[in-house]
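Hello K.,

You asked for the raw outputs rather than the summary table, so here they are, unedited. I folded two proteins back to back in the same session to keep the settings identical. This is the first:
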Amino acid sequence: MDWNRVWEHLMLVSIAGVFTVVFGLLLGFAAHLDRRAGRVILAVVDVLQTIPALALLGIIMVFFGGSSATVIVGLVLYSLLPVVRNTCTGLDSVSPAVKEAALGMGMSRAARLFTVEFPIAFPTIFTGIRIAVVTSISVAVFGTFVGGGGLGSVIYRGIYVQDMGRILFGTAALMAMAVLLDFSMSLVEKRLYRHRM
């Protein structure tokens, strides 16, 4: 059933999204804390973003074989840029006065980062997460070429057998998924920015 492919697509995007957030935040923190390392980190994630998605999946398939793991790793690598950049930008934009006040209260560097700077920067960080998740929905379509399944296989099969119904189903499901996720995350984003003001 094609509905199983919808669920499979959602699972791929969800699992990749969790890893993207975790690694994106860690790399964003590292880029914020160490400027020299930050330049290298941002340069690497910039380069990853310029590699065509299908080519990136093909390279990863050499190491992981044709499987859903290949798709998940590819989605994580391809989606890191907005999370890393927005995390670094959000933390950099925290007012120096706020940092000085936290320092004056005797907070350690780690305490200032996680209890003061991170909450203030989170609306900007969440914007990066939103971009990464919505983008990965469409990129995951290429997973069918490396044995990852998902809605890409529905669309590819529809093209192969010239079944317009399959093509439209796959396309409509992708669009609905992207629109619903983007809309729901935009509501959260607006609320975060309202609380920040």
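The second followed immediately with the same parameters:
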Amino acid sequence: MVLHSKPRDFRDLCPQPPDRLPNRLKRYSVPIAAIVTASIVLLFFVFSSGLMSNMSVPVIPSVNVDSSTNPTLLWSYTTGGAVSSPTVVDGTVYVGSSDQNVYALNATNGAKLWNDFNGNFPGTLSGSSPAVANGVVYIGDYFAVDALNATNGVQLWNNMPFHDVPVAFSSPVVVGGVVYVGTTLPYNTPAVFAFDAATGIELWSTFPASIGSVFSSPAVVNGVVYVGTEGGIVDVSLSSLSTSFGVYAFNAKSGAQIWNYSTGYSVEASPVVVGGVVYFVSYDGNSYALEAANGEKIWNYTTGIPRSNLVNVDSSPAVINGTVYVGSDAGNIYALNAKNGDKIWSYSTGNGTLSTPAVYDGVLYVGSSDDNIYALNATTGVKLWDYSTSGSVGSPVVINGILYVGGGNSVYALKVASASAPSPSPSTYPILDITIGVAVAAVLVVSIIVLVIKKRRRAGSKNGST
């Protein structure tokens, strides 16, 4: 007799396939997946926030509301002659005057702190504005470069390389303990000097016979000195002129020439070096952009007409946020694309524009020989206001919402905006703020999901107990 027993079911000993998951686990599969996803997102933003905090989203700069209204005169100070463009350092305004004095004024109220009389026409007549570094004021005059104590005006040294020969030094620049300055003596003399800033001892001078006068203040960047030249005179009889108009680059330590770029006429305004590019304007009626490393031309744009027609460009450019701002003797202010030289906008003043523009809180400030200072929207070129002074206006300086400028024989301080730091680049929204916001949102989502699951579990346990 054969006994037949029921076959044993081994399915309970084998893993169940996915489609045979318990109902309880299936019930919470969606919330569990949501929790895992939210956790991954949260961890990503938390651990990447340190890396991303250095990134930013550009925001289009806007004009300060205060800047669109007429300025308020805080003070003015009148000297005995035409003044240079001012330099403002540590609450003091320094300026040279054709009355043969250098002045130091309180930047808050215009009170005179000191003046130094040297009899050599510092400032306007020599085309020199003061440079201030490490408590010393450096300025060029008709015969020498002078160094004065910035606190009391006491002379520390002066260097007269040509003794009693009037050479009219340009505005000096102080970099790395060295004073760099150009001269305007027209023939057979050095055109650029380097002096030790502490002692006034000459370190080097250039002597290319055809370089000629250097009216412009040198630009010193990454060990290279860039200057504009007027062209030299071949012989003392003044019978022939060189054609060495343009920009020269010299080694800042030795004075050795690195390269030069020739233009159609002289370059008397100072070049500006930004992002490896040299920007400058020439009396041939053009604005230029050159490679700083080798002097190769990137672009040029006609902002005036050649000197033979007596209308030309004669202000140093200002380069802000990818835009080149420059004035011309034709009375126009131009905004050009810094990469390709394309015109963005232009504005016509009443006369030639000889000053270097200044940009602060989205507003461009520029002086004109029509005796006015102009405020323009830096993005659109629309005029916000103009302010009349006692004479031709030099290059303005804006610090903490106050504009300092020389006009005629006077120095002016105008409140033009609320005090805030000038913005050389657009404002930014930190990505870190965004990541924190997302992380907080993720935490909230996870918390809600956990509460829902707990509620369902409690409801299920109640139903099972009944």
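The mean pLDDT is 77.

Happy to rerun anything if the numbers look odd on your end.

Regards,
P.
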